[in-house]
Amino acid sequence: METPLALFIGTFTTMLAVINPLESLPIYLRLLSGQDEQAHLRVARLSCFYATLLIFFFLVFGTVMLQIFSVSLSMVRIVGGIILMRIGFSLFLPSPSGGVLHAGGSNSPGQGLDIAFVPLAMPLMFGPGVLATVLGMCSMVHHPIANFVSLIAISLASVAVMLVTYLILAYAKELMSRLGVKGIDAATRIVGFFVAAMGMGLVFHGIIEALQTYHVIPPG
Question: Are 112 and 212 in contact, with CB atoms under 8 Å apart?
Fold first, then answer.
């Protein structure tokens, strides 16, 4: 089992890289074009709040759901790692944002509340990669009650990621003007490497645990 500090660092870096709020900046600004600064901050708060609720729901009930469907934690590591690897490799490729920006420019407060959940909170912030990260990190805690500190570390890392995401969205205009499209693209490609590496680590540990579970190799 990983130490609480290792779980915190691993969860924070992987989840932040998977969410990659820098890549969401153009989408966020396009969806809220024409609205004032208060509307921008309100939508940023709500979207991060909704994403945090989704993360904690699967953090608490994810393992229970896996038990209901009889899915082992080793399989979660393998599948989650493959998903993270796929996301990491895709971040190396150019991803034009023009095709995913829809329906901006409305001054309606109701629409601002709607886009806070879809598409900002889900799937931009809480998508398959974040779900795989949450379940993959929880799979490293074999005894949740006995290792309660480890779960606290994962929870704090999740909150820290959403706080960073909120700050990036809150200062979206300033960041876009300073970094520009090329700067955001470069940062996206860099974090893609680390996402792929973390996914490979989950796959490796999942395979080893599965082989030990089915007595192919002796337990370590």
Answer: no
Q: Is the model's pTM score more than 0.90?
A: no
The answer to whether the CB of 51 falls within 8 A of the CB of 122 is: yes
State how far the Cα of 14 lies from the Cα of 169, in Å rounded to an integer: 19
Q: Is residue 89 within 8 Å of residue 196, measured between CB atoms? A: yes
| H or E element in which residue 218 lies | none
Range from 141-145, 178-182, 209-213 carrying the lowest mean pLDDT: 141-145
Residue 208 makes CB contacts below 8 A (sequence gap 6+) with 217, 220
Q: Cα–chain-centroid distance for residue 99? A: 22
Query: Do 8 and 157 touch, CB atoms closer than 8 A?
Result: yes
Bond preceding residue 21 cis, omega within 30 of 0: no
